[in-house]
Amino acid sequence: MAESEKNKLELVQTNATDQTSSGEKLTQQETLQEVDLENHQAFKGDDSDGKVHWTIRKLLAATFLAMLYTGSQIPLYFAGATLSFIAKDIGQDLFGKRYIALFGALLLCTGCAVLGSAHSLAQVLAGMAMAGAGAGIGELTGLAGLAETVPVKQRGYSLAILTAFVLPWCPYVLYAELFSTHSTWRWGAWISLIFNGVTGIGLLLTYFPQAHVRAEGLSWQAVVKRIDFVGGGLSIAGLLLFLIALQAGGYSHPWTSAYVLCTLLIGLALICVWVLWEAKFARYPMIPPQLFMGQRVVSLGYAVAFVAGMNFFSLLNFWPLTIASVYDPIPVKIGLRGISVGLATASTLST
């Protein structure tokens, strides 16, 4: 192979043609031209390869992306550690890239505000639902955004630092016991609101990633048509009904009651319909099958994440309740017993 062929890709062009329901043909092109493979100072469109010229703004953007990831965890930490205080105060038992990042931070702040001002179970659930939606967006955006900001060879170190941002919050049981005993459990939501508010403002001022071109040449109507709304609705409704049945069964309703059986069976049926829809009928499925074809590591990765998530949420919510019920209700002692589990949950996040 000639030396020029080794060092340059003269022209690589891919065409993707699609057609809308109105018959209009949509063509998308991506062109890569004159790339010197031996040039180690080269830039990619998202600054994720080659040499990155760090500026104060870029350093702050990377910091706030790490804070966005951490801020996504804080509401869950404090909510799990203050369940008994929330139940006592409210009087109900509770056992039973830029714009996306900003939207996630906004949802987190809104959810924390609703949770911090809650006076009923419905408000608590609404606040946690909004904060949970923002947390899902923020956690993924923080990881992906920081990975795209730094060079590939430094990505491992950078994501390790991102995860380390959680460490100051590992004694969350101690914090929650102290402010819940001496003031109010609502400080958990307010601290989360302050942290995510600062993070959102920081992202607004410093985070300006270069846009990807996947939707270039497509109108917003064509992009919307590629969203699998049917699959999303089926999966959300099915999982929601299934989880409601598991929460109510044997607690607020008998397992043999019509309430539990209907929600359980309808939820399972909707999940089965969702699997069938994604496999056979969805034109643009939520989970592309190509993601798993010939890549066993993807399936294994999802399996590990699923099991780790079970451990993460059970420890996060039930361990504070256990130590508060079994041992003497002394805030500092309860908080100290919770530190080890806080570090364990932080290690779970690193997976």
UniProtKB/TrEMBL annotation:
Source domain of life: Eukaryota
Family annotation (InterPro entries): MFS_Str1/Tri12-like, MFS_trans_sf
Entry's transmembrane regions: 59-87, 99-118, 124-144, 156-175, 187-208, 229-251, 257-277, 297-319
Subcellular location per the Swiss-Prot or TrEMBL entry: Membrane
Gene Ontology annotations for the cellular component aspect, listed alphabetically: plasma membrane
SUPFAM superfamilies: MFS general substrate transporter
GO molecular function: transmembrane transporter activity
UniProt-annotated stretches for the region Disordered: 1-28
Membrane topology: Multi-pass membrane protein
Pfam families in alphabetical order: TRI12
Keywords, comma-separated and alphabetical: Membrane, Transmembrane, Transmembrane helix, Transport
Name of this chain's protein: Major facilitator superfamily (MFS) profile domain-containing protein
UniProt source species: Recurvomyces mirabilis
